[in-house]
Design brief:
alpha/beta; globular
């Protein structure tokens, strides 16, 4: 049984529907007459954007992702819905930080628009120095290489996805994204660039709600933090926000959803209980993980679903996310449901060069600690509010 995300979030349609419909003719005409490269196209948001573009019949749509299986499903999904387009549509199973990607790009460009969704997005990936280095390479180093490749290209726009965790970041994933934003808005780039910060995407791969689906399928307990609140978008909404930013955004714009703390901020225990109720079960709160695991089969047979809720005490978990800070210039008038951060600050070239060179030296050295990496982050982000705790997400159910 699949839960309709709009039912779960108390919405009956996309919050961006009016803005998207208002610009539909312009978007469709632009897409039909343009060529696109989508990197990270087989992830949740990448697929949502790929579908929006594919359904509007682009001249060229090349998509890149390292997940062979997800690319296969993306193609099957497109062929089973829209079918075919008159323009070129091709998929490539390539790591965008690789030599293969460089050769591919040099042989297939020029593109009018490039959308980049390739990222390591989980706080889990910063628990050890090896996964953390991989996160930095995907979120920052590979982007640096790509920006050099497209610096003097005749693009209409380059879009790279960000996150609400980039605002006053407390975890290293968010820190990589604020660095990415500053790198992206380098004034030396000759074409337009844009980005989007947005909320958690409901049921996206690896998300807590995706985990709810997996626990339901496997008849396992559902767990959630009691002290964490998040804004949530549907997959459809994430695609609409990124398409609008990528095609309608002015140079150095960051789009974000206009969402209210009063009506749009959800705590995960409330979401968990509603999810269980929509499945036709009664939430049953257990006092320990062990109790929830031990009694799962018996409770589920009686129409009750075992839950375990506890306060989060893990490294990198911010209690409430934000879309912008007080120093940023906002445009809240152009769109009904979207705010725009204008003229975001570019990076300091000297500090960015030092940061990238130091990371490369650590990688080439062949050994590094998390402390080594943290020092570089605190150097380039003096206000970085990060605290290492003794517990990580992998240490809990």
């Amino acid at each position: 049984m699949n839960i309709n995300p709009y039912d779960l979030l108390n919405r009956n349609r996309s919050i961006f529907k009016e803005d998207f419909k208002k610009n539909e003719d312009l978007l469709s005409e632009e897409i039909e007459n343009s060529s696109f490269l989508i990197i990270g196209a087989a992830g949740t948001i990448g697929q949502a954007v790929t579908k929006k573009i594919f359904f509007r019949n682009p001249k060229v749509l090349n998509v890149v992702d390292i997940s062979e299986n997800n690319l296969v499903e993306l193609v099957r999904d497109l062929r089973s819905s829209k079918g075919y387009i008159t323009g070129e549509f091709k998929t490539f199973c390539i790591d965008y930080g690789s030599r293969e990607f460089e050769v591919f790009f040099n042989e297939t460009e020029p593109y009018d628009y490039i959308f980049n969704f390739s990222a390591l997005k989980h706080v889990r990936s910063e628990k050890d120095p090896y996964s953390l280095m991989r996160m930095i390479k995907v979120n920052i180093t590979f982007l640096s290489k790509l920006l050099k490749m497209i610096k003097d290209k005749n693009l209409k726009n380059y879009f790279s996805v960000s996150t609400d965790k980039a605002t006053n970041p407390e975890n290293l994933m968010g820190a990589t994204k604020i660095i990415m934003e500053r790198m992206l808005f380098d004034k030396g780039i000759s074409h337009n660039v844009s980005s989007a910060r947005f909320a958690n995407v409901a049921f996206s791969d690896g998300s807590l709600l995706f985990g709810f689906n997996q626990r339901y399928k496997k008849k396992q307990p559902i767990t959630a933090p009691t002290n964490i609140k998040r804004y949530l978008l549907t997959k459809e909404e994430s695609g609409e926000l990124c398409v609008l930013s990528g095609l309608m955004g002015e140079n150095r714009d960051i789009f974000f959803p206009k969402m209210s703390k009063e009506s749009d901020l959800y705590d995960f225990t409330t979401i968990a209980k509603k999810y269980i109720s929509l499945l036709g079960y009664e939430p049953y709160e257990c006092s320990t993980e062990e109790e929830a695991r031990r009694n799962a089969e018996d409770l589920i047979s009686k129409g009750k679903w075992p839950c375990y809720f506890e306060q989060s005490d893990t490294t990198g978990e911010k209690f409430i996310e934000e879309f912008y800070d007080s120093s940023e210039i906002l445009d809240l008038e152009t769109y009904k449901s979207i705010g725009v951060i204008k003229n975001k600050t570019a990076s300091n070239k000297e500090s960015m060069t030092y940061f990238l060179n130091s990371l490369e030296k650590l990688s080439e050295k062949g050994t590094w600690t998390k402390r080594d990496i943290l020092k570089l982050f605190f150097d380039i982000l003096p206000d970085f509010q990060h605290e290492e705790k003794s517990r990580y997400l992998d240490d809990k159910m």
